[in-house]
Design a protein that fits this description.
alpha+beta, Diaminopimelate Epimerase, Chain A, domain 1, 287 residues, 22% helix
Length: 287
């Protein structure tokens, strides 16, 4: 049996960078074991499988090389950008059923994709003394920011880790320690960020480490970007609603992710993350 798989870069910046995702558009005939096999063969941080749904426009399942996850931001961009390129969909609003719930996705006239995420759940906090050794930095690099280390989920649980300006690229991630810590604390991974200069065009620069899911570092992480927008709107500037994040610079794959939140009575009532996609290629996998 063979299946066609496309590769699409998501959250590109000036037609470069981004994170590649695998996309299988006709996945109804595949079972879970076959989907995992394809994702493992692809070796990308996530591969998305698109199925028909009676509840939404599509059902989408997401697999890393070693496990299924409830949601993936960059693979969502990849799926809907590809459906737009193939003229299956036109600009407009659509729904996808995921294991994180039914979520709205909007395609703009230029093919960019904006996705709804779950409302944030603020979870456990950790100290700099616990986290810094995994990153090869002094605890003061974290504490000097005056911001907390907090786990947040808008579909997947990532740990938001602030670092002082100019220190992000000096982080040396201890992948085995991060993987073990993530499994113990039921995290997908660690999402590090440093606030950007006012005139830089970005709200923050980010790095994401998720070795527990076979992702040592990712150049664009849509789910964590939604969580970071909620974090900044809560702990940094409660008036802010729109954010632009840079990720992947250290990897030579600079990505641009936009995020926005809405509030009602000082509580976050909507979370959206968006970006551009770029088709790379497609091929058949036999199994």
């Amino acid at each position: 049996m063979s299946i066609e798989v496309a590769t699409v870069n998501a959250f590109t910046y000036n037609n470069t960078g981004g994170t590649p995702a695998g996309v299988v558009l006709a996945a109804d005939a595949l079972n879970t074991e076959q989907m995992q096999h394809i994702a493992t063969q692809m070796g990308l941080s996530e591969t998305a499988f698109v199925l028909t749904s009676a509840q939404a426009d599509f059902e989408v399942r997401f697999f890393t090389p070693n496990a299924e996850v409830d949601f993936c931001g960059h693979a969502t961009v990849a799926v809907f950008h590809l459906l737009y390129l193939q003229k299956v969909l036109t600009p407009g609003s659509y729904s996808q059923l995921t294991k994180a719930g039914q979520l709205e996705v909007t395609i703009a006239a230029d093919g960019s994709v904006v996705m709804q995420q779950q409302l944030p759940t603020f979870l456990q906090r950790f100290t700099a003394l616990e986290i810094a050794p995994m990153l090869g930095i002094s605890p003061s690099v974290i504490t000097d920011t005056g911001l907390p280390i907090t786990a947040i989920s808008t579909g997947l649980v990532d740990l938001m880790v602030p670092v002082s300006s100019g220190s992000l690229d000096s982080v040396i991630a201890n992948q085995p320690l991060i993987a073990e810590f993530s499994r113990q604390q039921q995290l997908v991974g660690l999402h590090l960020f440093e606030l950007s200069a006012v005139n830089s065009g970005f709200s923050a620069s980010c790095r994401n480490f998720a070795p527990a899911f076979a992702i040592d570092e990712e150049s664009a992480t849509g789910s964590a970007s939604g969580a970071l927008a909620c974090y900044l709107a809560t702990y940094h500037d409660q008036r802010a609603t729109d954010f632009v994040f840079e990720q992947g610079k250290k990897m030579g794959a600079c990505s641009r992710l936009s995020a926005s939140v809405e509030k009602q009575a000082n509580a976050i009532s909507s979370v959206r993350v968006g970006g551009q996609g770029q088709f790379i290629d497609s091929f058949s996998i036999k199994f």
